[in-house]
Write a structure and sequence with these properties.
The chain has 2 domains: 176 residues, Glycogen Phosphorylase B (Rossmann fold); 172 residues, Glycogen Phosphorylase B (Rossmann fold), CATH 3.40.50.2000. It is α/β, with parallel strands linked by helices. The protein is built from 13 helices and 13 strands.
């Protein structure tokens, strides 16, 4: 069986991690099938006998990709095509699988230009209609999809994301103090798009008395001007760029508390990664986060800086509770390090063949 996979988002954070730790992890364990991976130039980074890398230069979410990926799939005699994000080439004439991670563009339209939400709605409608199987990464996202796209009923399945081997290895030897970070500190990791709730976090932090330093790690270019000004005006907030690998593990492991104020997620990798490092987590009560983190995190009312400030203040003063959360986190995170999702994905491929 020849399975085509669009891996052009291989190095993205959320979707890229899904591709690496679920989709390609499954493919690497399968020696009986062939996998044709449509990638951006220079991304053929994994050498395996079952992998064939095909460069695809079409811009993501463009009209051109529908034609180009269909033509190349026909040339490669693809039998099943898997798109790990919500755009599925509409002209394909083989079996198709799509992973829809969340419906942020439709659930929080106010955070996006009108045209972008309408474009996402159109593409998702066509994708749901076209796909033979729809995968999503949480029961929350499944319910959201079924609510807005009833045509998905009968062909949608939950395939939880997976934490890779990095999060189950020995402690990182990197010292965050070399980056001007004082100990102890509070930590946020993620992007700075509006739905991530950074404004709630900054407002809550400003209400704490004698709080540790707050470290924000992510792509700061996504910050709007007003919020950026508030952050820069507070000398106790340290704004870092993107962090990955051993540095990211060290940031998690040395943090006193990890805070995740997002208004909406399909899954939510960062708080789960923090848990794996034994760091207490305070998260918003967004439904997917409550589903994924379970009883081993502290939750506050999303978008409510008063509640977040109160929960942080209580946890900062309660060393015993921090110790309990720190002990429970790694055990909980190990539930997302299994082979269950890769095995399930392979079974879906074979069912469609």
């Amino acid at each position: 069986m020849n399975i085509g996979i669009d891996v052009r988002k291989l190095h993205d954070y959320g979707i890229g991690t899904h591709i690496r730790e679920v989709v390609l992890h499954a493919a690497l364990g399968d020696s009986s099938d062939r996998f044709t991976l449509f990638c951006e130039p220079g991304e053929s980074t994994i050498d395996a006998p079952q992998f064939t890398w095909i460069v695809e230069e079409s811009r993501k979410y463009s009209l051109r990709e529908h034609v180009s990926l269909t033509r190349k799939s026909n040339e490669q005699k693809i039998e099943i095509f898997h798109s790990p994000h919500y755009t599925l080439p509409y002209l394909l004439n083989c079996k198709t699988i799509v992973t829809i991670h969340d419906l942020i563009h439709l659930k929080f339209r106010e955070f996006f230009p009108y045209w972008k939400s309408k474009a996402a709605e159109f593409l998702l409608t066509q994708t749901v209609k076209k796909a033979d199987v729809i995968l999503t990464v949480s029961k929350t996202s499944r319910d959201d999809i079924l609510e807005l796209f009833p045509a998905a009923k009968g062909k949608i399945e939950v395939l939880y994301n997976r934490l890779g081997d990095l999060w189950n290895g020995p402690p990182s030897q990197v010292d965050p103090s070399a980056l001007g970070i004082s100990d102890p500190y509070l930590l946020y990791v993620g992007n700075f798009k509006r739905h991530k709730g950074i404004d709630t976090l900054v407002e809550a932090y400003s209400r704490l008395n004698n709080a540790p330093q707050l470290v924000l790690a992510g792509k700061s270019g996504e910050l709007d001007a007003d919020l950026s000004q508030k952050i820069l005006a507070n000398s106790k907030i340290r704004l870092l760029g993107l962090a990955s690998g051993e540095l990211l593990r060290a940031l998690y492991a040395h943090a006193m508390i990890f805070v995740f104020p997002s208004l909406y997620e399909g899954f939510g990798y960062p708080p789960l990664e923090a848990m794996s490092c034994g760091t207490p987590v305070v998260s918003s009560d967004a439904p997917a986060l409550k589903e994924i983190l379970g009883k081993d995190a502290e939750f506050f009312a999303r978008g409510n800086p008063d509640d977040l400030a109160q929960k942080l203040s209580q946890l900062l003063e309660d060393a015993e509770k921090r110790k309990r959360l720190a002990a429970a986190g790694p055990k909980h995170a190990r539930n997302f390090m299994s082979e269950d999702s890769p095995r399930k994905l392979l079974s879906i491929y074979r069912r469609l063949s």
